[in-house]
Amino acid sequence: MAAPSSEPRKRGFLGDIITLLRPFWPMTLLSTLVGTLGGLATAWLLASINRALHEPDGFTGTLALQFLGLCALSIAGSAVAGIGNSVAGQKIIACLRRDVAARILATPIDVLERHKSHKLLAILNGDIGTVSAFTFNFAGYAVSFATVVASLFYLFVISPLACAIVVLSFSVGTGLALWRRQIWRSDYREVRATEDVLQKQYRTITEGARELQLNHDRRRHVHETLLAGAADRIADIKIVAMRRFWLFDSVSEAIFFLTVAVLLSTRAWTGLSASAVSGAVLVLLYVRGPLEQTLQALPAMSSAEISMQRVADLTAELPRDNGQESATDAPEFRNAISLQDAVYAFHKPDNMPDGMEGFVLGPLNLTIRKGETLFIVGENGSGKTTLVKLLLGLYAPTSGHLLLDGEPVTADSVSGYRQLFSSVFSDYFLFDDLVAPSPQDLEIARHWLERLEIGHKVKVVDGKFSTIDLSTGQKKRLALVQAFLDHRPIMMLDEWAADQDPTFRKIFYTEILPELKALGRTLIVVSHDDRYFDCADTVIGLKAGKIIDVKATPQTACLAS
Ligand SMILES: Nc1ncnc2c1ncn2[C@@H]1O[C@H](COP(=O)(O)OP(=O)(O)OP(=O)(O)O)[C@@H](O)[C@H]1O
């Protein structure tokens, strides 16, 4: 089995945005074109107003009609651009969310374990929204851009000098905005990194609520140092950025008034006509809004660029699903699964001190025959769960092979291979519903709920369990019902009995496991219950990642114990 392929990131930010917009190009193109038309109409409207100001006949009927027509076009252009934008924006968010989720679902477990879940959540919740917030306004920027360019063109036609003064004024404003963007880029990088820390602390206060309420010192440390530290740092960076923003905004405003003053006060010297001066003031007044809107998009663009980078970095590491996961059927399980000189070595964590190495399981040789009950035993940290993940195809061997009926399980076949198993890990996830249950499934579920002595607590109602608010041991019994309903030939139960009371623990080993075996299930059971090791056909003992003991036991002994 090969390691997941990662796609090198070749495109730039603009390329990413265009790729995102590509599926919605008819709508984006239409709204951008109509929006641009609206922007041109606005510029023409300014020209008409200026002409009306200096027309000897004033606001003539023709001008009035033209004014109305242009108003309609300008308003309609903005509206169509706005609506088209929001539709494309929402679809882009949905698309990105689906794509990232599909990639996470198709990602090998060890890669996923290396990405901490709070970081994945920050990307799913925060970054995707930031990217979309920028693409949302794509047509809006086109409207603003068209208005600015067309208005300047009009001004150039009536007076190149007035146009030059206005362009100079806008250029200084634009220069300031670009400078501001540059500073915001580095600020936002720190904001975004701190948001990951914040997300981690949010998880701590929700998932560790019990522990924190019982320990005031830790609670204070988490709340006042870690969480408040991250929240305050983000606030501090944003306060400085906003202060800078308003300072730059005031300077831009001052430049605007200064330009108007220059235009008015130097008329005698520059020889500008009244129509050129009023045209320039109109353009300055009216175009300032759209221009600022475009310039204000620059910080949003920086944020989107960094967020896009994070989404792209993540998705480059995660494989594309291509629908293969759902399309692959389980192969037939005829004889045995085995490991041949299989090794799994964990990556050494970045913060692991020198001289310490990551855990290595193997090399292992092991065969599990169809219908066999195998117990994996060993002290804490000996590698039992790691071995199970290797056997289930969740970890790919670093070297050696995983074989199904003598054939190596490859990167192409592993997804189907995994469908041979149902599992209850020691840190299992409990689903509260059944996937498309048949009437027989409902019957089987009822049987197993009774058999596991939780039938009085849980029923199946409309394809869902009526509750999953159960005791720890009862939840685990429900997880076993779920695993059984998966109808897989091999069941893996990792320390399943650890949370059960002594009576039910005995029932599990001496009745439930033999029943499952009698139903044809191959069973892989991780256990510390040495009292019941006789209930296995084979027991393998692990120590420091190596098999130290293999024992074949007749299962009849279990029934007598
Ligand atoms: N995600 C991980 N990243 C790095 N190392 C890991 C990871 N998971 C486990 N390990 C290492 O692998 C070793 C074996 O872990 P494993 O969970 O397989 O032990 P185990 O035998 O199931 O233990 P237990 O009886 O406590 O459940 C551990 O000592 C740990 O250091």
UniProtKB/TrEMBL annotation:
Localization annotation: Cell membrane
Gene Ontology CC terms: plasma membrane
Topological type in the membrane: Multi-pass membrane protein
Classification via SUPFAM superfamilies: ABC transporter transmembrane region (SSF90123), P-loop containing nucleoside triphosphate hydrolases (SSF52540)
GO molecular function, one term: peptide transmembrane transporter activity
InterPro entries: AAA+_ATPase, ABC1_TM_dom, ABC1_TM_sf, ABC_transporter-like_ATP-bd, Cyc_pep_transpt_SyrD/YojI, P-loop_NTPase, Type_1_exporter
Keyword Nucleotide-binding carried by entry: yes
Alphabetical GO biological process terms: peptide transport
Bilayer-spanning residue ranges: 24-47, 67-88, 120-146, 152-179, 245-263, 269-287
Protein's recorded name: ABC transporter ATP-binding protein YojI
Source organism (scientific name): Komagataeibacter saccharivorans
Gene: yojI
